[in-house]
Amino acid sequence: MFALSELKVLKKWRKTGASEELHRALVLTRDEDVATLLVDVTHPKVVSLYERWGYIKVGEQKPYEDSPTFAIMAKHLTGRSVSE
């Protein structure tokens, strides 16, 4: 399993497709079957973005008392569905 932690692009590169290209280039180099990431559930646009990139929400996590709640998202990198 490959865990992605923070993909951020500079403001001038947002809405240009750069983040999707970076993400694709990163995950295509991985040998793992699954990529996972956490997204703050108070950012539904970001959750939706990752869903368009093929991730599905598989749960939620609140790692500690004063942290936000995160959507746990996963994507199979080998063409199989996450539930397989």
TrEMBL record:
It comes from Streptomyces aurantiacus JA 4570. InterPro entries: Acyl_CoA_acyltransferase. This is N-acetyltransferase domain-containing protein. It comes from the Bacteria.
